[in-house]
Automatic annotation (TrEMBL):
Domain of life: Eukaryota
A GO CC term attached to the entry: peroxisome
InterPro entries, per database record: ClpP/crotonase-like_dom_sf, ECH/Chromodomain_protein, Enoyl-CoA_hydra/iso, Enoyl-CoA_hydra_C
Coiled-coil ranges from the UniProt annotation: none
SUPFAM superfamilies documented for this protein: ClpP/crotonase
Keyword annotations of the record: Isomerase, Peroxisome
Protein name: ClpP/crotonase
Organism (species): Mortierella alpina
Subcellular location, record wording: Peroxisome
């Protein structure tokens, strides 16, 4: 099964040495997430996991935001006819797939968080300095086999990062960012709930190999909606390193390229050792969170909260324009 040709919300490049870069490509919408984006994200991850050409994945975004989280819009006439329950089931299926792909991803995923970046003309760093984009490599996607060991991932985060962009990042292997990136999960403000396994991954949880913040800081983020800085996230253990903006992607791609040169099966086997005991638990948590999120998003309380949020956003925009 070849990768769909209509992944227009992402830009995918396969660099030499097996480094794949998947970039959110809706900069005018601040890389906001809607059902189309979730669907394409899941398919892009599936391709990267199954392709023998990919050894390391870098996930990033074009524009000012890595992602601004869930896209909040007024439903159009066709969506109103389809109904809220049907719309949520569609979104939930796509979102669940993204989380499952991240949980089971067999290769190294690096998240790269940096603002105002584009991949045009990027060269892959190498010790010889001769790395270039592989334009001849056409991604292909295979069906998922859950018993098949797959790879490692890097998240190079572009800031700010909001909502699902923050929580999904915690499922990646390595996170790099720039000094002025920020991390925010306004779930309570919108009447939502935790998602992408953050209800268990963020607090201290001795049964998991990966816990990010400890209960107090996790509650500040998930229950109180506090915005965290890049340095705070580094201290919490979610961010591995902070690089200067000027050299950020060069540093990230250099590290990704070096990792891609390691024996690939050794990388997969070691990642499996780290993650094996928590796969089923994380998938159960993901299912529970998505079920509750459906209840929350269809509630009157959440509808009122979203309306107030959008009105406040509109008022801020009007005030800003009046000062021009």
């Amino acid at each position: 099964m070849s990768v769909p040709t209509n992944l227009d919300t992402f830009d995918i490049k396969l660099l030499e040495h097996g480094v794949a870069v998947i970039a959110f490509n809706r900069p005018k919408k601040y890389n906001a997430l809607n059902p189309q984006v979730y669907d394409q994200w899941g398919r892009a991850l599936e391709w990267a996991a199954k392709s023998d050409d990919v050894r390391v994945l870098v996930l990033t975004g074009y524009g000012k935001y890595f992602t601004s989280g869930q896209e909040l819009t007024i439903p159009d006439s066709s969506e109103l006819e389809e109904g809220a329950d049907a719309l949520y089931k569609k979104r939930s299926a796509y979102t669940t797939k993204v989380v499952e792909e991240l949980i089971r991803f067999p290769k190294l995923i690096i998240a790269a968080i940096q603002g105002n970046w584009e991949m045009q003309g990027v060269k892959t760093p190498s010790s010889q300095g001769s790395g270039t984009l592989r334009q001849d490599a056409t991604p292909t996607c295979c069906s998922t086999n859950r018993n098949d060991p797959r790879g490692v991932s890097f998240f190079a985060l572009l800031g700010p990062v909001i909502g699902f962009g923050v929580t999904s990042t915690a499922l990646c292997d390595v996170v790099y960012t720039v000094p002025d990136a920020t991390f925010n999960t306004p779930f309570m403000q919108l009447g939502f709930c935790a998602e992408a396994c953050s209800s268990i991954v963020f607090p201290r949880c001795v049964s998991l190999s990966k816990h990010i913040m400890g209960s107090s800081r996790a509650n500040e983020m998930l229950l109180m909606g506090r915005k965290f800085t890049a340095e705070e996230m580094r201290e919490a253990g979610m961010v591995a390193r902070i690089f200067p903006k000027e050299s950020f992607m060069s540093e990230v791609l250099k590290l990704a390229t070096n990792a891609a040169k390691f024996p690939p099966q050794a990388m997969k086997d070691t990642k499996a050792l780290i993650r094996d005991r928590e796969y089923d638990l994380l998938e159960q948590i993901n299912k529970r969170e998505m079920e509750l999120l459906g209840v929350r998003m269809s509630s009157d309380e959440s509808a009122q909260a979203i309306m107030e949020f959008m009105m406040a956003k509109y008022d801020r925009k009007e005030k800003a324009q009046s000062k021009l």
